[in-house]
Design goal:
Blueprint: E1 2-6, E2 16-22, E3 29-30, E4 35-40, E5 45-49, E6 54-58, E7 64-67, E8 71-76, E9 79-80, E10 89-90, H1 97-109, H2 114-125, H3 131-139, H4 158-176, H5 187-200, H6 209-224, E11 227-235, H7 237-254, H8 261-274, E12 280-283, E13 286-289, E14 295-297, E15 299-301, E16 304-306, E17 309-310, H9 318-333, H10 339-342, E18 347-351, E19 370-374, E20 378-384, E21 387-401, H11 407-422, H12 425-429
Parallel strand pairs: 14-18, 18-19
Antiparallel strand pairs: 1-8, 2-4, 2-7, 3-6, 4-5, 6-8, 9-10, 11-21, 12-13, 14-17, 15-16, 19-21, 20-21
Helix pairs in contact: 4-5, 8-9, 8-11
Length: 431
């Protein structure tokens, strides 16, 4: 029986994705529950598992965009074998099955004549070309069976296809050079090589679903919200001294380091409680006031920026916040983040300081009305009680939707942030 492997529904807003990786080869035996592919959508990377055991036939190539519900493979559950191997036998031999086995046995016992027929057929069906490779092959009339693949499981990469193009004109030049006696003759075959060198100067590839989603959301934020940014700075001496004094005991008790982010999450909650005008969102012509504190923490990955949400931060301890953020960071970088992890959120924190940023104007995460930008801590001379002293300072930036938040509220919010960070005891005592 043929079991279809379909792309499952992943969320109302997700209609398609890029099939980035096959973990099996065409014809392999797979076990029920075995991970067989990875699908990258505009929000998450999702793994797909086999619904049944049997030999698998792939119907979609790596790099291909597939819609939700599309059949990407078929599993024949009548075959047996070991994981990752080709099927070894067909246990069900009743009815029409013996008739199917006879044609398979003929090529083995037949004279050499079937062999040249089988080989081209196998070569024609074996290669699974990505869209980029397929385009090169079609444009240059290449035979994929003649190209040796250097990718995973012998797959043909773009570099392999380009090398095949480069090798072809060279052979033509060598064959044509002895024929014409005059020296100017070789100029004509040189043109393809020059063109190819120009092609190699750039790499053109489509945006990944996640990157397309990031781009659309950023443009949406810029076009729909009246974004304004206000700045301040905070002396990080007290927090740094607190972390240094209690770090060892904190790790021993909780199994996680006391970082800066938990202080900032707590400070944001403190400031939002004081200035609830920033804890709002617009829905059409309605203003929705949030009475909860789900804070999004931006995490950078190789595939793009994701913003998982730490729920009910006002109820969490410093250790619980730190552990949640660590778990999210590992999940995001391993491609295990889920849609539920990123949904909701009433305010976002983004830390450009880990990359060395001194100052920035963060863009809102719609439909939220506020976002805090953290930056690098710099030792700077400051005037304290009439004296110049060196202090570890951080610039803070709050971008807000000026349609619903006035400058007074935004500035007050940032001042409350500064006060809480410079005197972190306020956060533990909630004053």
């Amino acid at each position: 029986m043929a079991i279809e492997v379909k792309i499952p529904a992943l969320g109302e807003s997700i209609s398609s994705g890029i099939l980035t990786t096959w973990h099996v080869k065409d014809g392999d035996f797979v076990e029920e529950g075995q991970t067989i592919y990875e699908l990258e959508t505009d929000k998450i990377t999702q793994e797909g598992a086999a619904d049944s055991s049997g030999s698998i036939r792939l119907k979609a190539a790596e790099g291909e965009e597939v819609e939700i519900g599309a059949v990407v493979a078929v599993i024949d559950d009548t075959t047996t074998g070991t994981k990752g191997s080709a099927p070894v036998e067909n246990k069900q031999t009743a009815g029409e099955k013996p008739e199917e086995s006879k044609p398979e046995a003929k090529p083995e016992s037949a004279p050499p004549s079937p062999e040249p027929e089988d080989k081209p057929q196998a070569q024609a069906t074996a290669p699974h070309l990505s869209p980029a490779v397929r385009k090169i092959v079609d444009e240059h009339d290449l035979d994929p069976s003649t190209i040796e693949g250097s990718g995973k499981d012998g797959r043909i990469t773009k570099a392999d296809a380009l090398a095949a193009i480069k090798a072809s004109p060279v052979e033509e030049v060598k064959a044509a050079a002895p024929a014409p006696a005059p020296s100017p003759a070789p100029t004509s075959p040189i043109t393809p090589a020059v063109t190819h060198e120009v092609d190699e100067r750039v790499t053109r590839k489509p945006l990944s679903p996640i990157r397309r989603r990031i781009a659309s959301r950023l443009v949406e934020a810029q076009q729909t919200a009246a974004i304004l940014t206000t700045f301040n700075e905070a002396d990080m001496s007290a927090i740094m001294a607190l972390r240094k004094e209690h770090q060892e005991n904190f790790v021993a008790k909780n199994g996680v380091k006391l970082g800066f982010m938990s202080f900032f999450v707590k400070a944001v909650v403190h400031a939002l409680k004081t200035v609830p005008e920033l804890n709002v969102r617009m829905e059409g012509e309605n203003l929705v006031q949030n009475h909860y504190f789900d804070i999004g923490v931006a995490v950078g990955t190789k595939k793009g920026l994701v913003v998982p949400v730490v729920r009910d931060c006002e109820k969490l301890s410093f250790a619980e916040i730190e552990q949640t953020i660590v778990n999210y960071a590992h999940a995001a970088r391993d491609g295990k983040i889920t849609l539920q992890d990123m949904q909701g959120g009433c305010f976002t924190i983004t830390n450009g300081g880990i990359y060395g940023s001194m100052l920035s104007t963060p863009i809102l995460n719609p439909p939220q009305s506020g976002i805090l930008g953290m930056h690098a801590i710099q030792q700077r001379p400051m005037a304290v009680n009439g004296e110049v002293v060196i202090r570890p300072m951080m610039y803070l930036a709050v971008s807000y939707d000026h349609r619903v938040v006035d400058g007074r509220e935004a500035v007050t919010f940032l001042v409350k942030m500064k006060e809480a960070l410079e005197n972190p005891v306020r956060l533990t005592l909630e004053i």
